[in-house]
């Protein structure tokens, strides 16, 4: 599992990880991302927002992205630019575009509320913009731009 922070020639600082499709891989990714964001001076609200989005996307890939029991790698990259934090995700799981699909209607009461299905709603609300691509090689590529503030 690779977990690294680097500076590109243009001076843009980024963080990258290739993690296995396991809960241990998710934990390593979340810990690495939060530590990197804090080293960059990112405030706690933005760190929490990025952590929520990261956890939701990677958890969904782990739970629903693969129809086999083989090991797969999920790649994630974070980059900072001005007041924006951009998260990139790349995996070889089943095609799934989180930018589309219906929103869950709010429940009238807690008793009527269903469990689950709210993660994508939270991501969509947190994101400044999202872009999904299914590559010709059969990979999911997702970009989510978040406020760094």
In short:
The chain has 3 helices and 6 strands, in the order ββααββαββ.
Report on the structure:
- With 149 residues, this protein is of the alpha+beta class.
- It has a single domain (2-147), classed as Histidine kinase-like ATPase, C-terminal domain (Heat Shock Protein 90, 2-Layer Sandwich).
- The chain is 31% helix and 32% strand.
- It is built from three helices and six strands.
- Strand 1 (2-7) and strand 2 form a beta hairpin.
- The protein is globular and about 40 Å long.
- 23% of the residues are buried.
Topology:
Elements lengths: L1 E6 L5 E8 L2 H17 L4 H21 L8 E9 L2 E8 L27 H8 E8 L5 E8 L2
Antiparallel strand pairs: 1-2, 2-3, 3-4, 4-6, 5-6
Helix pairs in contact: 1-2, 2-3
How would you describe this structure in keywords?
globular; alpha+beta; 3 helices; Heat Shock Protein 90; 149 residues
* CATH first level: Alpha Beta
Low-confidence stretches: 7-12
How helix-rich are the residues, as a percent range? 25-40%
**Beta-sheet strand percentage?**
25-35%
Straight-line distance between termini: 30 Å
The CATH topology label is Heat Shock Protein 90
By secondary-structure content and strand pairing, the structural class works out as alpha+beta
């Amino acid at each position: 599992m690779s977990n690294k922070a680097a500076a590109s020639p243009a001076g843009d600082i980024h963080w990258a990880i290739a993690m296995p499709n396991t809960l241990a891989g998710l934990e390593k990714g979340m810990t690495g991302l939060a530590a990197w964001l804090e080293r960059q001076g990112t405030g706690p609200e933005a760190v929490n927002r990025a952590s929520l989005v990261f956890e939701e996307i990677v958890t969904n890939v782990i739970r629903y992205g693969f129809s086999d029991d083989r090991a797969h790698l999920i790649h994630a990259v974070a980059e900072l630019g001005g007041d924006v934090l951009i998260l990139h995700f790349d995996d070889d799981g089943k095609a799934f575009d989180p930018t589309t699909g219906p929103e869950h209607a709010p429940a009238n009461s807690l008793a009527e509320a269903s469990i689950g299905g709210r993660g994508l709603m939270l991501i969509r609300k947190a994101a400044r913009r999202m872009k999904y691509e299914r590559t010709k090689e059969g990979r999911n590529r997702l970009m989510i731009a978040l406020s760094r503030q």
